[in-house]
Model the fold of this input.
Amino acid sequence: MAKLTVPAVLEMKRAGRRITALTAYDAPFARIMDDAGVDIILVGDSVGMAALGRPDTLSLTVGDMIHHAKAVTAATHNAMVIVDMPFMSFQVSAQKALENAGRIMQESGAHGVKLEGGGKYADRIRAIVDAGIPVMAHIGLTPQSYHQLGGYKVQGKHGDSARHLLADARAVEKAGAFAVVLEAIPAELAATITETLHIPTIGIGAGAQCDGQILVMHDMLGLSDGPHPRFVKVFSDLRAKVKEAFGAYIGEVRDGSFPAKEHTYSSLAESPLKVVGKKKE
Ligand code: KIV
Done:
């Protein structure tokens, strides 16, 4: 399989082939995901909550994102790797957004960036795209603005806010985004946006009519603390499986059954440790 490109993603929408996306923040999971055939891996700023124990995404820096993205790109052969632009890396100005997007691309080896916000950041999207860097937009519930939104709430439920989101979707497409994440919006609105745009919509809590879906890996693997929003489906309860493995290890160490013979080096006579031990005698 060849590396997924922006034209190929656009073609998937035209051909009606659903796009699969997941977040990853390290090499082992990125490798498994890539082997499984996921189309897009997002190094999301959700890493703050999912893997770093932080209360929200606001404290993540460009350096943090690059650190995780490097691990993901090193382990990925086929999927397109997109990196979230963290809080305050693009809000200040188009110039700063371009510089940070360029740094993320150069230092991480990613294939594009994602940024939260609609029409008001169209100039940032345009500046980055004009430099040849693919941009995935993100509208609806934008976690970097959760203080202003009053929490992690469904967006676009009523007339004005729905119209505003449709306008945002059009604006990010016009600015050159190659795809747009729709987070926590009514399925009907997501369907309208999906029909209206030429670029693919990637939904998370936006219903089944989007061109693709994304979930936070730790949520769908049952590795994150609940309660989860209703859009999360837990595909495997890894927390229980991992806990069981840890418990088995603790038990075997305590009762002496691990390490067994097959986990143990022999030929003690040739062991340097034995020689050192002998000298001491
Ligand atoms: O940071 C993230 O993981 C995201 C996805 C939820 C889309 O932005």
User: Anything to note?
Assistant: The first helix runs from residue 6 to 15. The beta strands are 19-23, 40-43, 80-84, 112-116, 135-140, 179-183, 201-204, 212-215. Residues 6-234 form a domain with the TIM Barrel fold (CATH 3.20.20.60). The two ends are 61 Å apart (CA to CA).
